[in-house]
Amino acid sequence: MRCRETVIHVTGRVFALVSPLIVALLTLPAAAAEPPEIVCIQCHGSMPGRIGEPVKLWKGSIHAENGVACNACHGGDPKDAANAMSPARGFLGAPKETAIPAFCGRCHVGVMKDYLASAHGKALGKGGPTCVTCHGNHQVVKATLDLINEKSCSRCHSYERARLIRAAMQETEGMIVAIDTRIAAYKGEGTDTEGLEKGLFAVRNRFHTLFHNVDVEMVKKESAGIQGYLKKIRDQLTALDNSHKKRKLAGAGGITAMLLLALFAHLLRKTYD
Ligand code: HEC
Ligand code: HEC
Ligand code: HEC
Ligand code: HEC
Ligand code: HEC
Question: Where do the domains of the chain lie?
Fold first, then answer.
């Protein structure tokens, strides 16, 4: 009897000791679902200076956010530390200045085409900017019109033409943001906004491919065309505003009529009382 009690007692204690471990084991798969750190980051991350720096810069980038890691740009084997930087495993190294557009252009094909055809692309290797001059190499963030600023664009020439491009694009950007806000408000109320959203998405994509040709006249002309489309979407929204107003007015009218009717009935009853 006593012996059995002790066994139960001991088992209970063992269980009490083990249970946190079981809990830990049960929750482990969730933690293990994170992809293991690639060898490029393990090794470079532990190094000082220009060899370690890219890891810190890359961590806050739009590429890190989208899973574009070291090997996606530089090639190499991210799983085998001993052969990671072997050319046999596709390692490309760091590109020279003139090779940068093709290096980035493997993924950003349309942008590269526009760039190569532009005054900037034609001046590649002869004082023109590369992708990295404007976007950085490891700390690339979401592109906005703030990239066009006096400090950055007057490094090589006057800011005047850049200012004109920014002004044309800023106006269009303002229209896009305003329309986006109005569509979002209707969507929030449960109105079907799919058609409007698709229209804006297409226009926005066209707009964001505009910059890299850096041709003031072309940007102005294209901006006018894009603004034409945006005005059409704006007209549709205004029509939607008006039909909503009418419905609200019709609703208010109905209520007034009912109130009048009630008042009339009340007065009628009073007269007969
Ligand atoms: C075991 C450590 C280690 C690993 C793993 C490693 N690197 Fe390196 N890497 C270095 C060192 C050290 C240097 C600088 C000396 C040199 O160029 O060999 C370097 C240099 C580089 C350079 C600069 C080369 C140049 O031409 O200037 C790039 C780019 C690079 N590594 C990318 C990668 C990528 C991508 C991976 C993963 C596929 C990777 N590294 C894995 C240690 C490592
Ligand atoms: C979006 C593409 C891209 C990604 C992702 C990227 N690199 Fe680079 N890296 C470049 C470019 C471009 C250069 C050449 C930079 C230049 O000339 O300004 C470069 C240069 C380097 C160099 C040489 C630096 C020097 O000063 O000589 C090292 C080392 C390096 N990268 C390591 C890494 C590591 C490690 C990672 C991952 C954490 C990484 N890179 C991710 C594009 C990238
Ligand atoms: C002279 C500066 C400059 C150069 C050179 C440059 N860019 Fe850009 N890039 C910009 C600006 C400014 C924008 C933002 C335009 C906007 O908001 O519509 C941008 C936008 C982008 C975008 C976002 C486009 C989109 O569809 O949303 C990508 C991707 C990009 N650049 C990649 C590149 C690549 C790759 C290269 C080299 C082939 C390059 N850029 C060269 C300034 C530059
Ligand atoms: C392996 C493919 C790949 C390479 C190489 C690459 N990128 Fe990207 N890049 C992406 C992806 C994926 C995104 C995130 C999705 C998007 O916005 O298109 C992105 C986003 C960007 C953006 C932000 C776009 C936006 O919407 O605002 C810029 C700017 C950019 N990259 C510039 C560069 C530059 C500069 C290089 C070269 C140093 C480069 N990329 C190399 C795949 C790549
Ligand atoms: C690294 C140097 C450099 C930087 C930085 C630079 N440019 Fe340029 N840019 C050039 C060169 C070189 C030319 C061709 C010669 C010329 O027209 O001045 C040029 C030409 C231009 C042109 C005239 C294009 C044409 O077809 O007439 C515009 C517009 C322009 N750049 C806008 C910008 C903007 C906007 C920025 C900043 C986002 C910028 N540049 C940053 C070097 C640069």
Answer: 148-273
